[in-house]
From TrEMBL:
Belongs to the cytochrome P450 family. InterPro entries: Cyt_P450, Cyt_P450_CS, Cyt_P450_E_grp-I, Cyt_P450_sf, Plant_Cytochrome_P450_Monoox. It comes from Hibiscus trionum. The keyword Lipid biosynthesis does not apply. GO terms for molecular function: heme binding; iron ion binding; monooxygenase activity; oxidoreductase activity, acting on paired donors, with incorporation or reduction of molecular oxygen. CDD domains: CYP81 (cd20653). This is Cytochrome P450, family 81, subfamily K, polypeptide 2. Its cofactor is heme. Keywords: Heme, Iron, Metal-binding, Monooxygenase, Oxidoreductase, Signal.
Length: 498
């Protein structure tokens, strides 16, 4: 027995010493000194996008990290981004396996998290053609206009009472109601208390504070049920699934009772009609996952952008006056700005683009995952590496943007954001780029434009709005935006109709 013990010790010694000597040394990207077991975790702080930007400024725009058991590639230059989503787009077309993805995303039946392949292509085709194509976005214009009208009414009621307006809450309710109508055809009850209850439930189900799941980097922690993370995710999945199933079942019952086809059916109504033709593919899980992604990707990102944009305008009154003059010139005072006016308001679009540059809702893009070995920036990137693109670092790079920390909407005048390519990444790049960009942008433009057209705005308290970001992964304000508004005198007649 003692000889057997010594034999295994000898084999283990050979494994630890000889194998590393025989392994070819890889030309990996620059990397800081790592610690045993945890790797580079000790170098990361909140907010993560700033912490990574500091490392990138020291080691270069292509950085290699080891976080627990995971290899991570971090990039922050347009050339590296183009290489990842151009030459290597197919290689980085997958999402990394995560506990949250496995538990919350209906076994990969969501087009955002599905592995690249036939299922993903079919899911994306359904989502883009039926919900997010330019034709579909245009069909939903009446929903956006109705909900923006409701926003104007709420602002009017607040201004009559001289109350300060909680814009974070109102923008959140606006985007929730738009997405609920697009998905199911019904918004929250207009009663103030009922609407607030629905909004709080919606937030708790779809936007709980999860943070980084360390079990994804240290799998052994999952085996011991570390901090009840897996149990919490399963409970969240149960709550989400109950909410989504109730939504689907209600619409299914309503379709049974009312056989006449609608002119503009909701997303779930469309998918249920497809289910009748192809029940094997259009299962309830696919329908719920598709609507779920509309809620998660389309609500908070849009409301956060509106809050940052209004904050910037309150701190830059000249830009506010310039965009108001543009709206007055093209829309006038006799009607509320509508969807068809947006193409005639280029400076309004510049303001939104500059907001997205300074405060991208996803400062770090949704991670990608390499399916095979590849080269990025002249360095070797092993198969199974998690790719992180630091969009915030690119948007704030002085070698790319002139005075990047300043609010200068004019920098986008005469250009389309598409022409900025890998310099401007609020919606990602490549085949996994956000397909809902058009819908989100149009809602931001419409709501922001209507608020500017109808009201004068003042900051509450100090001369400037506090622009401190929060520490959560999503780039939101630490202090919710509150402001004072009053109807513009030449819009009184129009507003009296609300």
């Amino acid at each position: 027995m003692e000889n057997l013990y010594h034999y295994f010790c000898f084999i283990f010694f050979i494994f630890l010493t000889v194998k590393p000597l025989t392994r070819r040394k890889q030309n990996l990207p620059p990397s800081p000194l790592s610690l045993p077991f945890i790797g580079h975790f000790h170098l990361l702080r909140n907010p993560l996008y700033k912490s990574l930007a500091a490392l990138l400024s020291k080691y270069g725009p292509v950085l290699y990290l080891r976080l627990g058991s995971r290899r991570v590639l971090v990039v922050s230059s347009p050339s590296a981004v183009e290489e990842c989503f151009g030459k290597n787009d197919m290689i980085f077309a997958n999402r990394p396996p995560t506990m949250a993805g496995d538990i919350l995303m209906y076994n990969g039946r969501s087009y955002v998290w599905a592995p690249h392949g036939p299922l993903w292509r079919n899911l994306r085709r359904v989502s883009v053609v039926q919900v997010l194509s330019s034709i579909s976005v245009q069909k939903f214009s009446s929903i956006r206009e109705d909900e923006v009208g409701h926003l104007v009414l709420q602002l009017l009621e607040a201004s009559a009472g001289g109350q300060k307006v909680d814009l974070k809450y109102l923008f959140g309710v606006l985007t929730m109601n738009v997405m609920l109508k697009v998905a199911s055809g019904e918004a929250a009850d207009r009663d103030r208390k009922a609407e607030q209850t629905v909004f709080q439930e919606f937030k708790s189900i779809f936007f709980p504070s999860l943070g980084t799941n360390v079990c994804d980097f240290f799998p052994v922690l999952k085996w011991i049920g570390f901090q009840g993370i897996e149990k919490g995710l399963k409970d969240l999945y149960r709550r989400r699934d109950e909410y989504m199933q109730k939504l689907v079942d209600g619409i299914r019952l309503n379709r049974t009772l009312h056989t006449a086809a609608k002119k503009n059916p909701s997303l779930i109504e469309k998918l249920l009609s497809f289910q009748e033709e192809d029940p094997q593919f259009f299962s309830d899980e696919v329908i719920k996952a598709t609507a779920l992604m509309l809620f998660i990707a389309g609500t908070e990102t849009t409301s956060v952008t509106l809050e940052w944009a209004m904050s910037l305008l309150l701190n830059h009154p000249k830009a506010l006056e310039k965009v108001r003059a543009e709206i007055d010139s093209h829309v006038g005072h006799d009607r509320l700005l509508n969807d068809s006016d947006l193409a005639k308001l280029p400076y309004l679009r510049c303001i939104v683009n500059e907001t997205l540059r300074l405060y991208p809702p996803a400062p770090i893009l949704v991670p990608h995952y390499s399916s095979e070995d590849c080269m990025v920036g002249g360095y070797e990137v092993p198969k199974g590496t998690l790719l992180i693109v630091n969009a915030w670092a690119i948007h704030n790079d002085p070698s790319i943007w002139d005075e990047p920390t300043k609010f200068k909407p004019e920098r986008f005048e005469g250009t389309l954001e598409e022409k900025e390519g890998s310099k401007f990444l609020p919606f990602g790049l490549g085949r996994r780029a956000c397909p809902g960009a058009t819908m989100g942008i149009r809602l931001v433009l419409l709501a922001l434009g209507a608020a500017i057209q109808c009201f004068h705005w003042e900051n509450v308290g100090s001369d400037t709005v506090d622009m401190t970001p929060g520490t959560a992964p999503a780039l939101s304000k630490a202090m919710p935006l509150e402001a004072l508004c009053s109807p513009r005198p030449n819009l009184i007649k129009l507003l009296s109709q609300f």
